[in-house]
Specification:
This protein is of the alpha+beta class. Helices cover 54% and strands 12% of the residues. It is built from 15 helices and eight strands. The strands form two sheets. Strands 1-2-3-5-4 form a five-stranded mixed sheet, with helices on one face. β7 and β8 form a beta hairpin. α6 packs antiparallel against α7.
Amino acid sequence: MITAVRTRAEVFRADTLARLRGLTVVRLVGDLIVLVAALLLDVWPGPWAETKASGWTLAGIFAVYVVLLPLRHLLPATAMIGGAALTFLGPAAMVVLSYTAGRRIESWVKAVVSTTITFVAVVLLWDWDARPLDIEPVYGMLILITIFGVGVALPFLVGRYLAQREALVLAMQEREARMRGEHKMLSRQVRLRERSRIAQDMHDSLGHRLSLISVHAGALALDPSLGEKQREAIGVLRSAALTGMGELRAIIGVLRAEDGPDDDPATRTAESIDSLVADARKAGVLVSLVRGGQAHPLPSRVSHAAYRVAQEGLTNAAKHAPGAAVQVTVKYEPDALVVEVRNNPSRAGSPGGAPGVGLIGLTERVRVAGGILHVGALPSGGFRIAAVLPYEETALPDEPEDEQDEAESPRGIRKWAGVGSIAGATLVLAIIIGGFTFLGAQPVTEVVSQENLDRIQEGQPEADVLALLPAGDEPLVADGERKSQASPEPPGARCVYHITDEQSYLAKGTRVVRFCFRDGKLVEKKIHVQRTGQ
């Protein structure tokens, strides 16, 4: 228990210090504006008082505001509950305290508990004697719920909604930043892997050529017509070729261990696309091969890149569009080789797997070969991979700039942020609107108009007087609260009480008129003021 208290104290202390360090001039000015606005809206002439506060009363109220409003940043729940317990605190300050509590309280359990305690405090400390009319308790409670909903619940829910939305946006930004970093790292890894394969191809091709140089040099050294100096030069040439081949194997040859036997560049050329298509057809893929143009000699890098385009296209089609027809096109144009793989939409109606990173490596492979790769969806719903490759050997291009280095801020925000707060605000509004709708649907009769009051005179028949009076009582005001402060009724008379339509708050009560009947005639018409709280 003591350890938990110490931990909470340390957390509170750290949060307080962090907020103090984060204070800026703008925030200080903003809090000062909020304080002054709350004082101006609440103190003059005061939220519930009928006379202006002055002297020590005004100084005390000012001191409470100066302490309580800044305290809302450190102890939001305590400040909100304390504000509800202070009966002289005005509605403007209560709105500020409730809004800040909604922004600062993170736990939904603490939020529910704090708002419940605040409501209980409002109910227990509500000044029922300050009502302008003595109304029945059910309607008084409805008015109280309305005041609590508008002054406490709605600001609290608005603040909580904004806090949840801000936290969600921040989480989305962090998540997208992390995903961009992971994607950047993954792209770099795929490029390095593809470059290692390219290095392996160079190792195989260059090693083969060095082996030929060494073999030819060894055969040439056996020629009897050569002199001693020529034999010595040939020996040096053969030794250099063998040494270069050994060093090449030592430096690059280890890359062979990362790939399987199918990565041999000698078996992965543009001419091998036929066997690649045949293997895919045996595996059940509906694939066709279209060749066009006059065949042209291709550099090893270009030929291998063409093979990889066809291979990646068939792999993606089988993975993401199972059962769809695929067409592989190898066309020798006058100035470039075009390799294209396109597939129809999947028969299953949805992709058959998650997108991989093969296209990243393929882009690097085609780029190194000096070509251009196009990848995209077709208007028909299918997919297309096409590469344009040069016939000539080209120098390795420079590494492109990473397009993710200057990523834009995320604009997509989950639309369900703060749904709980919105639902709570909707519930509060529904209770308020529903309560007043129910109140408005009650059979409330009109009060006695001044015109009818002037027409009614003592001595008139009871039937004529009743015809000018409302047919029933006003349900907002109980009958006992209309006559408890009236003078004694005339002996033997039957009296009815009605509220007049002319009321004055200066009277500090409700004007009620009494009509007393005896022997079928009006014997008394008398108006009295039913004062509140008496």
